[in-house]
Amino acid sequence: MASVSSTTGGYVNPRGIPQAPFVDVVDDYVKSREQVEPILQSFQEMLSKYKYMEMSTLRRAAGLREKIPDIQNTLNAVLFLSSKSGSNESITTTFELNDTLYAKAEVKPSQTVYLWLGANVMLEYPITEATDLLVSKLRSAKESLQTCDDDLEFLRENITTVEVNTARVFNWDVQKRREEKENAS
């Protein structure tokens, strides 16, 4: 199994996803018809792994796309509270309790805010620390989303490469069978 294009073989992206080799010359890659079935099986296994990674990355990206607006809204609220913390006047606001349930509240100026951290945990932070934390989480989420998008593009390219390899090896096998049939008759 010699001639896999050397320009693509062996590369692993920064997250450890290996690049699929491109079969340049099928005659050099497949020496006999007995090798066709194992090669096609290995391509099918490779394709399954890439599709699994793609689905996993799509789920992660969807979660990040859902989480980023929530972080941004929380950061905006903390920044608003920060801008009002110097005055003594309270703020009357309407806030969401549930998807369709809202309540009015009077918020007194404060130097602290409470943030949900998840898993039914809420902590009190000074406004400056809360702002720093939310800015950091927002930046991290956006970077993770960009990483997911890069990985998805890389995976789609490799899925296409494996599908092309599979088709080329299959077509090579069909051609060899025809040649054998013609030579036999």
Explain the overall architecture:
The protein is of the alpha+beta class and 185 residues long. It has 3 helices and 4 strands. The strands form 2 sheets. It has a two-stranded antiparallel ribbon. The chain has a two-stranded antiparallel sheet with strand order 3-4. Helix 2 packs antiparallel against helix 3 (127-184). The longest helix is centred in the last third of the chain and has 58 residues, at 127-184. The protein is rod-shaped, with a radius of gyration of 28 Å.
CATH architecture label name of the domain at 36-83 and 111-157: Orthogonal Bundle
Task: Kindly state the number of beta strands.
Answer: 4
Structural class category = alpha+beta
CATH topology of the domain at 36-83 and 111-157: Helix Hairpins
Task: Describe the structure in brief.
With 185 residues, this protein is of the alpha+beta class. Helix content is 60%, strand content 14%.
Which characteristics define this entry?
single chain, 185 residues, alpha+beta, Helix Hairpins, two-stranded antiparallel sheet, two-stranded antiparallel ribbon, 4 strands, disordered N terminus
